[in-house]
Amino acid sequence: MFIRAADWAQARDFGCPVGLHLRRVLLDLTGPPRVGACTLAGPVPLPPWPVREVTVTWPGLAAGVDIVVFLHPGPLPAAVRSRLQAGPPAVLVLPALPEVMPELPLIDARVPLLAGELRALAARHPAVAPALLDIAGPAPAPRPRPRVAVISPHPVEVALPGCEIVSGDPHVDVVLAVAPPGGWSPADHPTLRDAARRAGRLVSTAPLPADVPGTLVPAGESWSRACQRALRRPPTLPDPRPGTWLRAIDLLERRRPGDPGQPPVFWEVIAQALVFGALAGLAAAQVGPAVGVGAALTVGGMRWWTGRREARRAWLREENARLRAVPRAPTRWVRRQLAKEM
């Protein structure tokens, strides 16, 4: 993939923006390994390894990093396991940071990054999309089936299409709690709390105690669909740092791609161009009719070109401000969570 991408970029015409961008990507992805280390609490400085150190914080979504060394002793929480499956970048889980650099899966980490850059370029430049998508190859395989543990105070037969039912394994994505006919009793509460803490996502067939986080299976919905719906929801947020969360929201909103639509017809600019052109033509017509016509076309055209560019810039600023003023659903969700915690 790297060789084909380099050959394609080299064959582009001089000054081609796609070729220039792809060359910059290849330079980054063939240079020294870009590595950062962190824990759930924050970044960790690297020992003197022969790498380009990048400061990262969990969940390791910093730009310009190939491999995130995640330091965590003991079993991984469910939210961390979900993040490891999502990628990129690649995440290397270690209980502690060694002084000697471990073997880094650099090729396995950089190939998905290059494929993602190629697909992003293809989306922005439809004219060359077939060639770029051919280099990138097929899309990534779908994620494995979610692992679901079923708990209940009485024996129960459960069928969950699209999910893998596991038992005796603490590393699961969702816990399905099947309640007895009378609902949960106080004796069941410790088990429910432990399941919610371990898995991060608890789905119950009966109302849960107030201090147990989880979701209730709505009436008429299948248990399998309820588990899939719980997987689409984010797990419990870490301890909030309002300033950091709000800055992240603002950054995402500024980078949000928006389609301002078709620009309006700038009638005021057209009128100005006609008036200025007519005045210039009348003034120059004293020399000769041809000179007057040329002056009118020149002045009017220049006014139309400059005025349209200025008006379009002002319109784009207004449209971008309007798009940013309409919060998206994820932004509203994060702000609601912060309001609850603050």
Short summary:
With 342 residues, the chain is α/β, with parallel strands linked by helices.
Task: Explain what this protein looks like in three dimensions.
It is built from eleven helices and ten strands. Helix content is 47%, strand content 11%. Helix 3 links the parallel strand 4 and strand 5. The model has no long low-confidence stretch (mean pLDDT 83). The two termini are 48 Å apart. It is α/β, with parallel strands linked by helices. Strands 1, 2, 3, 4 and 5 form a five-stranded mixed beta sheet that branches. It folds into three domains: 2-136, no CATH class; 147-232, no CATH class; 242-341, no CATH class. The radius of gyration is 29 Å and the shape is elongated.
Number of helices: 11
Please state the CA-atom Rg, rounded to the nearest Å.
29 Å
* Main sheet attributes: strand count, strand direction, barrel closure: 5 strands, mixed
| Backbone shape | elongated
Residue share in β-strands:
5-15%
**Are there runs of 5+ residues with pLDDT below 50, and where?**
none
How many beta strands in the DSSP annotation? 10
Indicate the mean pLDDT: 83
